[in-house]
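re: that chain from earlier
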Amino acid sequence: MADSRDPDNPAPPAGAPPPGTWVLGRVRGIRLTMRFTWLPVAMLLALGFATIIGQQFPSLGGWRYVAAFAFVVAFTFSILVHELAHALMAMRFGIGVTEINLGFFAAGTHIEGERKSPLAEFAVSVVGPVASLIVGGLAYFASRAFDEGVGYVALWELGIANLIVGATNLLPGLPLDGGWVLRAIVWKLTGNMHTGTVAAAWAGRALAILVLAGPVIAEQIWGWQPSIIDFVIALLIGFFLWSGSTASLMQARLRRKLPALQVRTLARRAVAVHSGTPISEAVRMAGEAQAGAVVVIDGDGKPHALVSESAVSAVAPNQRPWTTVSEVSTRIGAGHIIGVNDTGEEILATLREHPASEYLVLDAAGGVYGVLATSDVERAFRGR
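^ sequence. v structure.
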């Protein structure tokens, strides 16, 4: 089951629900949503399970459809238990949780920010699979109370499914929960969170290769004859593991560069001009001052807009003497101001929360220091 508990990515905004979802309600302030695709997938799964159940328990007759749908609904609820375990444990460590989004193959708990310690990482990660194992065990033993029938079949299938989910998610490789557990252990042993991420990501890649080779290995060792469906499933799961672990590996490498990113060194020197200044004159002044940005000031000399580099490039050279900077500038919002002493994490937080192409940089006294261009931040990432 996929998981959105990636601490290297921001949580989505909690205002509007994601497109294509139902809002089911809230638990402890956490919004519960479900994808629209749940219903058709649930019906298809119920039909598939009904066929299997009919073969195993022909005496059920038409009740096999009831048993199959009961299993699908109960399994959805058990997924919610899994994700709630992640969410509630995160909240115990003071970590914000905005949403739980339910789906059969991509359920996720949107957790804000990073775990502050290996213990928090370990606890938040391991509790989900443990919850699934507990639900699976309870359902399996509860099925023993029935000799046969709908209750027995639904509970037995629910127990086996949750035991598989719990055990699979504990496999030590990203993006599975077990990968985050491994990351926490390596983090504790080395004292370096990013080393833990790299180790868990490579473990996820190893798992992906093992899954891809699984049908062939099973055939060679146990003589089991895999079908085309088995190879397709192995390919899908292997691709999921490989892509998830590769993304985590890339993020870890990028985050190692964060401490070296500083607004002070990335900011461009800026010249200040009034709104009625022609673009050609502003460009000339910037060239003379060896500045890479232009700030528009009001009558009191206070900055109120930034000239967009891309907008200036879109104006033909012969039109620049007749076009003022006010026509190619963007008003400075509260989120488009950044401090000169901000570094990696603070820079990325500003870029994520208030996307823009340029940001006004203020010095410690509140004066204009320069302009930070998003393109320069991206270039610093690629070049380091």
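Confidence is low (pLDDT under 50) at residues 1-14.
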